[in-house]
Write a structure and sequence with these properties.
The chain is α/β, with parallel strands linked by helices. It has 11 helices and 5 strands; from the N terminus they run E-H-E-H-E-H-E-H-E-H-H-H-H-H-H-H. It has a 5-stranded parallel sheet with strand order 2-1-3-4-5, sandwiched between helices. Helix 3 links the parallel strand 3 and strand 4.
Length: 232
């Protein structure tokens, strides 16, 4: 299945680079783009939004095309319009150079599915595009480390809880991917380690090994659920 992506961003260099990097992917298609709030609303009114599977949204947008003044509040407004007025229930990935906690909190409250940071350096675009691909294909919450404390919630979602339950039972990443519908074991692993970060302290996140993170997170999961330790 080909996922159709719509970009809302006034940075033509970024838009063109993403379009080129996605062009070689058989399952991803850039459906169109808007460079301002006005152009985005025009697209919404056209009725074509129903054909879109993912919106990539920059928060810093101008009101109209060509206008130099931009504001993150405009992007937040567009996000709110998508979720509340247009009832868009597909993925919305925010890609911006803002690391302001308030912007992150508003984007999260507005219903974004990921918050990726773009540096503005062309050499960083392939890495950013790879992160976008993982998020689009795997339903993964992608966030930069600097914003993690804003986005990681204390309570796990039902799907996250199911993943932890599967790991506690001894399931492999391949089995987790198959059970929960992730594209492959790598995507399931990426999701899993983001869940581990929700359960671990900042010190544990930064100092213990990957394998120990998994073990420690499962220990915390068992304690939270008041479940006995699984038999060896």
């Amino acid at each position: 299945m080909v996922k159709k992506i719509y970009l809302i961003d006034d940075d033509s260099v970024f838009v063109n680079a993403v379009a080129q990097l996605f062009e070689v992917e058989a399952d991803l298609e850039v459906f169109g783009c808007a460079a301002s709030e006005a152009e985005a609303h025009q697209f919404f009114r056209s009725g074509q939004l129903q054909n879109v599977d993912c919106v990539i949204l920059d928060l810093k947008l101008p009101r109209t095309a060509g206008e130099r003044q931009t504001s993150t509040s405009i992007g937040i407004e567009v996000l709110a319009t998508l979720r509340t007025q247009e009832n868009f229930d597909q993925q919305i990935l925010v890609v911006t150079d803002s690391l302001e906690p308030n912007d992150g909190e508003q984007a999260l409250a507005g219903g974004c599915d990921g918050y990726l940071y773009k540096t503005g350096n062309l050499e960083d675009l392939p890495t950013l595009a790879d992160e976008l691909k993982v998020a689009i294909r795997g339903d993964v919450l992608m966030i930069p480390r600097q914003m993690r404390y804003v986005f990681l919630r204390e309570v796990l979602t039902l799907k996250e809880a199911k993943l932890m339950e599967l790991l506690d039972r001894g399931s492999t990443w391949n089995q987790v991917a198959k059970e929960l519908g992730y594209r492959n074991a790598n995507v399931a692993t990426a999701v899993g380690y983001r869940i581990f970060d929700k359960l671990l302290s900042v010190h544990e996140q930064e100092t213990i090994s990957a394998e120990r993170k998994r073990e420690k997170a499962i220990e915390y999961w068992r304690a939270r659920c008041q479940r006995p330790r699984s038999s060896p």
